């Protein structure tokens, strides 16, 4: 951040009175521009004993596999965001289920929230951000080619819970390396 | 947002190619400035059969009661954010417990996440954003003077679960009126 988005004056980095952290401050109009963590919402869409995964058509991690997930937008709920991302990336309609994983990625300034979901019908296909979308059994998961650590954690917990007949939720903190210049998704640790 | 925070050129609102929503776009340097929901983290700090609540010293809802909560910062986990807010607003050290409430407030572009917590000792006091901090039993909760609907939902679920001997997590979607010009906390519906 170089300039004030309100009045276009140069920004200075300083701790405002009464605050405890340095912020992007405009000394002309007095605006304080806060930067806060972003929510990434996703789901594990299930059809019978298989789940839907997507092969990424975009960087970072193009060509690697992921569960459908992406940045939550203003005006939607978390469940709506997860369902929208599933429609955009996998062209699949889902009913959102229970909370599965909450993954803090502080180095990337993100929190990833993952739900269980069910496909209404086995209808899906690659959206613009996917090269390929497919239904796979647990044995068919490409474990060595999962795009992001939060997706790996999510899939591991999904299958462990399913085997145990449970639907728990799971926390993780991933201190993956942050690669600047990407869309700010974390690289694998 | 009036000006590009990267290069100070005037901003236009338009849907970028391949996107599906209008964004703040700089036609000079090509920057796209996304606006996404913010996370508010809080907790219900418990000491024996009582919980800690704070009377707000700041707007919105000055003078009303709340659980300690506030905006999550970059670089921290959700649990760290909730503990920090408890220290800032109630000067109390807590051990974070189980997930209690996840409240979507789409009109305010916020998601509120609340945990159960335990005070290490019955030591607390008003931080700069609080007029008063006190330990109360369920019967002493000022139900008519709770600052925000998400806090009300959180407290109701906390006591209902405690009575039932459970520690569940609960979702809510609050479509409260958004009052511009405040710190963007939602007004009661």
Main traits of this protein?
189 residues, alpha+beta, Ubiquitin Ligase Nedd4, Chain: W, 2 domains, 3-stranded antiparallel beta sheet, disordered C terminus
Task: State the assembly state of the protein chains.
Answer: homodimer
Number of strands of chain A: 11
CATH architecture classification name of the largest domain in chain A: Alpha-Beta Complex
The CATH C-level name of the largest domain in chain A is Alpha Beta
Distance between the termini of chain A: 27 Å
Helix segment count of chain A? 2
Rg of chain A (C-alpha, Å): 19 Å
What summary fits the major beta sheet of chain A? 8 strands, mixed
Unreliably modeled segments of chain A: 178-189
Tell me the strand percentage band of chain A.
25-35%
**SS class of chain A:** alpha+beta
CATH topology of the largest domain in chain A: Nucleoside Triphosphate Pyrophosphohydrolase
Provide the domain count of chain A: 2
Shape of chain A: elongated
Sequence of secondary-structure elements of chain A: EEEEEEEHEEEHE
**Greatest chain-chain contact:** A-B, 41 and 41 residues
Give average pLDDT of chain A, whole number: 93
CATH superfamily of the largest domain in chain A: Nucleoside Triphosphate Pyrophosphohydrolase
């Amino acid at each position: 951040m170089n300039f004030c988005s309100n009045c276009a004056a140069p920004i200075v980095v300083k701790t405002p009175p009464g605050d405890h952290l340095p912020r992007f401050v405009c000394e002309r109009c007095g605006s304080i521009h806060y930067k806060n963590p972003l929510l990434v919402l996703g789901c594990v869409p299930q059809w019978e004993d298989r789940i839907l995964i997507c092969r990424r058509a975009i960087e970072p991690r193009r060509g690697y596999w992921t569960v459908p997930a992406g940045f939550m937008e203003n005006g939607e709920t978390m469940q709506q965001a997860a369902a929208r991302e599933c429609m955009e990336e996998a062209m699949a309609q889902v009913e959102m289920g229970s909370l599965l994983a909450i993954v803090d990625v502080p180095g990337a300034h993100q929190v990833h929230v993952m739900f269980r979901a069910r496909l209404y019908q086995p209808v899906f296909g690659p959206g613009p951000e996917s090269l390929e979308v497919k239904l796979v059994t647990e044995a068919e998961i490409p474990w060595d080619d999962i795009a992001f650590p939060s997706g790996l954690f999510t899939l591991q917990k999904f299958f462990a819970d399913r085997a145990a007949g449970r639907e728990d939720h799971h926390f993780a903190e991933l201190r993956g390396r942050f690669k600047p210049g990407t869309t700010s998704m974390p690289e694998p640790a």
